[in-house]
Amino acid sequence: MDDRELSLAVVGINYENADGGNRRFEVELCAPGDPIHLHREPKNKHDDNAVAVFTERGVQIGYLTAERAPWIGSKLAAGEEFVAVFQGLTAAAYVRIRFGGGAPTLPVQREQPPAWTDGFYPRPGRVGVGGMILEPWHRGRHRAEDRDRIQNHPVLGS
């Protein structure tokens, strides 16, 4: 990774755009590496340092965070060369920016943990299901038996 690159969170993806467009839907259409455009909004009524984030289709997906917007906005105002791409969507949307020319490098995606073969996924920590408490040491030892108890439970079972 290069010190001229950084990942930035995009906020406001759950709000509608002024034209009624759905930001979250647009974010769901984005793929990692898709071009992103940043526009300063000095007349924004909530924050005069706001930096709006747009997809290559010209649809706004949100704003950079208020903590990062003044710094990034000053770089945009100074005409500093940059390239921005969509990085991904987890709990929030992220963009990757590289200053000084060249395309940003997307971080290596972590592998997803393997799915359990029996299809039963207990929640972390204590799990209470129909009076059954699974302590962390207990989870994993009796997954199939616990699944069967839940399926045969008079209220919880199917």
Radius of gyration, in angstroms, nearest whole number: 22 Å
Q: Average pLDDT, to the nearest integer?
A: 81
Number of helices: 3
Helix amount, in percent? Answer: 10-25%
The secondary-structure element order is: EHEEEHEEEEH
Q: Uncertain spans, ≥5 residues at pLDDT below 50?
A: 134-139
Distance between the termini: 51 Å
Strand arrangement within the widest β-sheet reads 1-4-3-2-5-6
Strand content: 25-35%
Main pleated-sheet profile: 6 strands, antiparallel, barrel
User: Based on DSSP secondary structure assignment, what is the total number of beta strands?
Assistant: 8
Structural class comes to alpha+beta
- Basic shape: elongated
What would your notes on this structure say?
The protein has 158 residues and is an alpha+beta fold. Helix content is 16%, strand content 28%. It has helices spanning 23-29, 69-77, 143-151, and strands at residues 5-11, 35-40, 51-55, 60-64, 82-89, 93-99, 127-129, 132-134. It is elongated and about 65 Å long. The protein starts with a strand and ends in a 7-residue tail after the last helix.
